[in-house]
Design brief:
Helices cover about 40% and strands about 20% of the residues. By secondary structure, it is α/β, with parallel strands linked by helices. The strands form two sheets. The protein has an eight-stranded parallel β-barrel with strand order 4-5-6-7-8-9-10-11, surrounded by six helices. Strands 1-2-3 form a three-stranded antiparallel sheet, with no helix packed on it. Helix 4 links the parallel strand 7 and strand 8. Helix 9 runs antiparallel to helix 10. The N terminus is likely disordered.
Length: about 325
């Protein structure tokens, strides 16, 4: 006879099974049908000191900034954070530090993807131990899974290391080189990964993301700055975006949901103009990190090799362009 004890945890409810009073290897049946990440999540940069070491001292101010620019969650150790340039220990330390800095004000999602499945599992276990809201992982990219079935095997192994934590597949195909049918993957994975809750799509194929909204229980989060209004029109409000875009994307979503479509288009034009200047200077993570300093006034420092640090002349020219376009103050904290 099985006895069920309801247990509350971060973001979801679980049923703890005990068989005849004996804890059956702490088997948890995940009951998370209502779990969703908030619609506006920041992808913070990892602050670095001049010597390339992590500047943990900035995280409290950084978290305050994100809260005050309308973010409700953070996506830790992803692409903008240079997660793949961090050691496994550094990624754990960052997850710990961001949880402390968030102070319960932000849902913390930790990216645990790596080329080594054992590394991903170690990161997933750690994330669950510290009580994050959710984890996410992209595909290994050096040895690539040859088909969707193998990719499901990989993600099931990673998610299985954190059996009580909601899991999101992170599709960023232009970085991983793994191109799949997202809907087919989600449908196949649904029966294999009990904790699967959705998809973070940083790829540029918006119709593929829309197709995933037809998979029952799948929350889609868009990771493309200049496609947000299109995503809203397709019924996809969730976004993971650079941490200097909180005000702008909140205003865009608010206008669209209020039926003010023309106003929402104006905000999307601003987002496009920001992206155009970013692309002028190369468009990479190094450029975006420098933009964060221009917009927020917080200095997240340099980038790690193989990314190239912008020269002083490039930074000053880019700042001049943003000021000339009247864009610098859009990301400043404002009253909630």
């Amino acid at each position: 006879m099985a006895h069920y004890n309801q247990v509350e945890t971060t973001g979801a409810t679980y049923l703890h099974i005990k068989t005849q009073g004996i804890d059956a290897d702490r088997i948890w049946i995940l009951k998370m049908a209502d779990f969703r990440l908030h619609d506006q999540i920041a992808a913070p940069f990892t602050p670095l000191k001049e010597d390339g070491e992590i500047n943990f001292d900035l995280l409290d101010k950084y978290a305050d900034y994100m809260v005050n620019t309308h973010f409700k969650g953070i996506f830790v150790n992803g692409s903008l954070a240079e997660g793949m340039s961090m050691t496994i220990e550094e990624r754990k330390q960052l997850a710990d530090a961001w949880m402390k800095a968030a102070k319960g004000r932000l849902q913390v999602v930790v990216h645990v993807g790596a080329n080594c499945i054992k590394d991903s599992q170690e990161l997933a276990r750690h994330a669950e131990q510290i009580g994050v809201a959710a984890i996410a992982a992209f595909s290994p990219s050096y040895y690539k899974p040859e088909n969707i079935d193998v990719l499901v095997d990989v993600m099931a192994a990673v998610a299985g290391a954190a059996p009580k934590t909601p899991f999101y597949y992170y599709d960023i195909n232009f970085c991983t080189g793994v191109y799949i049918d997202q809907r087919e993957f989600m449908q196949a994975a649904k029966g294999r990964i009990p904790t699967l809750r959705g998809l973070k799509n940083s790829s540029r194929e918006l119709p593929a993301s829309h197709n995933c909204t037809f998979v029952e229980g799948c929350q889609v989060l868009i990771g493309s700055d200049n496609q947000y209004l299109s995503a809203l029109a397709l019924g996809i409000p969730g976004v993971v975006v650079a941490s200097y875009l909180g005000n702008l994307f909140r205003d865009m979503r608010t206008a669209y949901q209020a039926g003010q479509v023309e106003k929402a288009r104006e905000f999307q034009v601003v987002a496009q103009n920001i992206n155009n200047i970013r692309v002028k200077y190369g468009g990479g993570i190094n450029v975006a990190k420098a933009m964060f300093k221009i917009f927020s006034g917080l200095d997240a420092g340099s980038v790690r090799l193989p990314l190239r640090q912008l020269s002083v002349a490039e930074y000053e020219a880019m700042e001049k362009d943003f000021r000339a376009a009247g864009l610098v103050e859009i990301a400043l904290p404002r009253e909630q």
